[in-house]
Amino acid sequence: MIEDAVQVTWDGAMCKIRLDRIGKANSLTAGMLRALIEAFASANSAARVIVLTGAGRVFSAGADLDEARAGLATSPLWEELSGAVASSSCLTVAALNGTVAGGALGMVLACDVRISVPEAKFFYPVMKLGFLPQPSDPSRMRSLIGPARTKMILMAGQKIDAEDALSWGLVDRLVPADKLPESIDELVKDTLTAAAGHLSAIKNLIEAQAGQDR
Predict the structure, then answer these.
(1) 149 with 129: CB under 8 angstroms?
(2) What is the CATH number of the domain that holds 6?
(3) Sign (positive/negative) of CA torsion 24, 27, 31, 32?
(4) Is residue 208 in some structural domain?
(5) Going by C-beta distance under 8 Å and a sequence separation of 6 or more, which residues neighbour residue 39?
(6) Which residues of 56-74 are buried (b: 16+ CB within 10 A; e: fewer)?
(7) Is residue 68 part of a domain?
(8) Is residue 5 within 8 Å of 21, Cβ to Cβ?
(9) Residue span of the structural domain in which 144 resides
(10) CA distance 43 to 88
(11) Does residue 185 belong to any structural domain of this protein?
(12) Which of 15, 68, 159, 212 has the largest CB neighbor count within 10 A?
């Protein structure tokens, strides 16, 4: 059931969106992508913080293999999802409970902040599989880690461990798995008490400067 695979819970003004398809390494189906798009769109008006995470030891293995073979790998749903994440007016946090692979990186790159467990690995095997990455993913990755390292991941197919991801800027902090929930709570405590207009105004200032720097 798609409703079970994408779980949305609220804790005050914090919306938590969790991938929960443990038996399939949280691999993403078209239905799950649609559910994630709807979850971000619905949460944006009421949330100060949206936390995106996964169940188990893998954040997401990317596209479900059967659906990928049937065309999901090139679906516009991936780009629609990353756009929904990027357009959120609140603070979006990727709480990465494990490895992130393939198209699942798109929504992670679109988040404002990425916190990862030390065991996570990051890879996007589009060169090996013969697909193009989704349109906005290379530019978002490049803005975080630079062109050469982006080419290492997308063109050379390198699998990056969490320590390298941290030093490169692909993630912002490493936290042990058992400390991840409390670390997120500590990170967002000021954001949760902010006025919505104040929060969006600061985010707009940051995004405007980022556009000038490109």
Answers:
(1) no
(2) 3.90.226.10
(3) positive
(4) yes
(5) 6, 8, 15, 17
(6) eebbbbbbbeebbeeebbe
(7) yes
(8) yes
(9) 2-178+191-213
(10) 9
(11) no
(12) 15
Q: Across-strand partners of 8? A: 17
Does the residue 183 lie in any domain? no
| Per-position pLDDT tens, the chain of length 214 | 455 899 999 999 999 999 999 999 999 999 999 999 999 999 988 999 999 999 999 999 999 999 988 999 999 999 999 999 999 999 999 999 999 999 999 999 999 999 999 999 999 999 998 888 999 999 999 999 999 999 999 999 999 999 999 999 999 999 999 999 999 999 999 999 988 889 889 998 998 866 555 4
What tokens does 112 get? Answer: 């404002």
Name the residue type at position 145. Answer: I
